[in-house]
Design brief:
Number of strands: 21
Strand order of the largest sheet: 11-15-16-21-20-19-18-17
Radius of gyration: 28 Å
Distance between the termini: 46 Å
Shape: elongated
Length: about 500
């Protein structure tokens, strides 16, 4: 781009190395499309390897306007394409100002990248063309340019909240955490299994299921699948099928609970990370995978989403970074359920729910145990046998009859992971299913024990709860793109 007597002449330049050496310049028909994140993360034009010749290159940026500042001679825009928290500054001549250039409008901008004279941004775009692709009325737009909107406010606009800094940061963190989890399992020899969403199994035994039926049935007296079918509450039983052929398997996908609750802890649809490990008779093996996955994923997120995480720790949950750093510095302690009950009974705190041996631990109990152990995650093992589902392995201990089960409790959330060794002994499993009247329903599950069965175990981690834990977010509806809960409007 050349300037003369206040006029601007645009020339698209592409300068190969050979052309630089010979002094010849070649015209390019189209500008190079670039993302904001790759430009802001690179070195300054003309110096680093990535941008060595970038100052000669005509670039195209597409995104949404975050701010507009017209001046007498120049127009300043901040444009963000969702690839980073920070926008790219656009500097244009005042003649490119347009009444349609408003906060929230979608634009395409072409120009030449150059070093910025301002310390806060290493690079800016000297624009020669600005085109408004999509208009936005800033008066009617629910988010205002100079206001910081709280999570509760933006939750009212599920179709628009991705346009805010806080929620776009959350979605980038969520994406990076997903990548980190898959990477952890791949690096540790796990095979990913796509478990079904429609199933006839009630893995948890709680009965809080969404039944699946066709909208138009040929015969109202028959089930579409010949048996009642439901949206899955867990992929565990299908992973156990696969654990008969693979020593390490995992799944990561949506699960559903028809719990009629609108509290900050509940969703009707959420994501679960579940894993199954064969040839193990030790809860310590499961505990190691849970803790290593938590640490590996968290370190990855902190390394790749530092700005986005800092936004939450600064504006949403001040002081939470110290809590998170404390979690990562120490190994997670392990206590038994009996020890946990003893800690609760010796506490001076008054609990709303009883703390007798045999009771299920409530959220208030879980949070107290976490604080008691130094406000870091804590594993609780060996729960009462009667509290756990039919597949949990019987410890056969007396007088306290317990199961080889484990939960991971974390600050601010309570239970994050739940798992157990699975009952691989055919006689004990068959007896428990028969006692519950489920032997015919789970005859296929007994077959897994008849043909090449091995000791195995596994666990599930609530992905949204994990995000709450590392970011310090109080309401689970603020860490998922489209929250589904009872009596909510479904997009």
């Amino acid at each position: 781009m050349f300037q003369s007597a206040g006029k601007t002449l645009s020339v698209a330049l592409c300068v190969p190395r050979a052309a630089l050496l010979t002094g010849r310049l070649y015209c390019s028909k189209t500008p190079t499309r670039r993302r904001v994140s790759e430009v802001l993360s690179g070195s300054e034009p003309g110096h680093g390897s990535r941008f060595r010749y970038l100052k000669f290159e005509l670039c195209l940026f597409q995104g949404w306007v975050r701010s507009v500042r017209p001046q007498k001679a120049n127009l300043f825009l901040h444009v963000n394409d969702g690839s980073s928290l920070q926008p790219l500054q656009i500097v244009a001549g005042s003649e490119l100002n347009d009444p349609l250039l408003t906060f929230g409008s979608a634009v395409e901008v072409t120009g030449i990248l150059k070093k910025s004279p301002h310390q806060k941004q290493p690079i800016e775009l000297q624009a020669d063309h600005v085109h408004v692709v999509g208009r936005c009325n800033p008066v009617e737009f629910p988010f205002k340019i100079k206001e910081r909107h709280g999570l509760e406010y933006i939750r009212q606009f599920p179709h628009l909240r991705c346009r805010t800094n806080a929620f776009s940061s959350l979605l980038r963190i969520r994406s990076e955490a997903t990548t980190a989890i898959h990477s952890y399992f791949k690096e540790n020899g796990f095979v990913q299994i796509h478990t079904p969403i429609i199933t006839s199994n009630d893995c948890e035994g709680a009965g809080e299921l969404f039944q699946v039926e066709p909208s138009v049935a040929d015969n109202e007296n028959e089930n579409f699948f010949s048996v009642p079918a439901f949206l899955t509450v867990s992929g565990q039983l299908h992973l156990e099928v696969m654990s008969g052929a693979f020593s390490r398997v995992y799944t990561f996908g949506p699960t559903f609970r028809a719990e009629n609750s609108q509290s900050r802890r509940h969703l009707a649809e959420f994501y679960m990370v579940e894993a199954e490990v064969s040839f193990t008779q030790s809860l310590e093996d499961l505990i190691k995978v849970m803790e290593d996955m938590f640490r590996s994923t968290t370190h990855h997120v902190l390394a790749h989403c530092a700005e986005d995480v800092n936004l939450f720790h600064k504006h949403v949950s001040p002081g939470h970074r110290d809590t998170l750093d404390g979690m990562l510095k120490k190994r997670f302690p392990v206590i038994t359920y009996s020890e946990a009950i003893d800690i609760l009974n010796r506490s001076s705190q008054k609990f709303a729910f009883p703390t007798d041996w045999g009771c299920d631990l409530q959220t208030e109990h879980e949070k107290y145990l976490v604080k008691h152990c130094g406000n870091i995650p804590v594993f609780v093992t060996d729960y009462p046998y009667d509290l756990k589902p039919f597949y949990a392995r019987d410890n056969q201990d007396n007088p306290e009859h317990t199961a080889a089960a484990v939960d991971l409790l974390v600050p601010g959330v309570g239970e994050l992971c739940g798992g157990s060794l699975r009952e691989e002994r055919l006689d004990l499993l068959s007896a428990r299913l028969q006692e519950a009247g489920l032997e015919d329903t789970y005859s296929w599950y007994l077959d897994l024990r008849r043909f090449g069965s091995v000791p195995h175990g596994g666990f599930g981690l609530g992905f949204e709860r994990y995000l709450q834990c590392i970011l310090g977010v109080d309401n689970i509806k603020d860490v998922i793109p489209f929250p589904r809960f009872s009596h909510s409007c479904v997009l």
